[in-house]
Amino acid sequence: MSESRIEGYARALVEIAEAEGNLAVVENELFRLARALEQSENLRSTLTDESIPAARRQAVVEALIGGTATNTTTQLVGLIIGAGRGRDLPAIVDKVVKRASSAQNKDLAEVRTAVALTPEQESRLAAALEKATGKKVNLKVVVDPSVLGGVVATVGDSVIDGSVRTRLDQVKSRL
Amino acid sequence: MSQATQEATSIRAAIGDIAGERNRLVAEADQQAATMLTEGRARIAAEVAELEARGDAEIAASRSRSSDELRGEISVLASQAAQRAVSASLNASAQQELIENFINSVGAAR
Prior knowledge:
The structure holds 2 protein chains of 2 kinds. Chain A is 62% helix and 15% strand. By secondary structure, chain A is α+β, with helices and mostly antiparallel strands. Chain A has a 4-stranded mixed sheet with strand order 2-1-3-4, sandwiched between helices. Chain A is globular. By secondary structure, chain B is an all-alpha fold. Chain B is 88% helix and 0% strand. The A-B interface holds A 113-115, 117, 121, 124-125, 127-129, 131-134, 148-151, 153, 158, 160-164, 166-168, 170-172, 175 and B 14, 18, 21-22, 25-26, 28-30, 32-33, 36-37, 75, 78-79, 82-83, 86-87, 90, 92, 94-95, 98-107, 109-110.
């Protein structure tokens, strides 16, 4: 899908979520779903398989997130899947998150860790990143086992890499 | 000094701070990795010795193959051994320690 079309979808999603008064919640739920989609080949292939009727794929979305996400998020994801744009969902969601962050005058801080952070750790990490960058951040945590241990934080163009994966890669290159 | 010049000076100073801070964090992370590797060193030493023995045997058996190729294979095996040793030492407590160290390091950045 073209960049302008992705932008168009993102803009529409943000406006709908704002109209529903739950942009912060919706963008968070969309972000988690998009990362799950990236990490699961099964889920990705099911939601993007054009040979599966759109209604069936929308039903999969409903079954997957219907019980845990807001109705707005479920409806928006169903809309994208139904329009045959499931493959572009992560890119659309990334734009949504950036737009939502801008709307709150925050920078997106994408954090990858090998294990989940507690809400208290997320709060302290957000505060630490805000102190280090001098900017308000919209923290998004992705549990990514390939990190192995530690944390990789990306705020704008700055990457703070404290991951075991990177240290091991450095050892590997020295070997 | 014009406002634009002042802003440019301020931006250059901030970039310098970020670069310096990144270098400090990378140095600290290096120190953590070194500590972790020390803990698994005994295990690695045994595995590396075994790999070296296997490498020696393979070298003897495959003289026609280039030494570069063999060195590459040995380094891959050694790095795999290192990854296994480090992964085995990353229990829940070590994971939490790495996360806490990162948060504290970043929080102390300015």
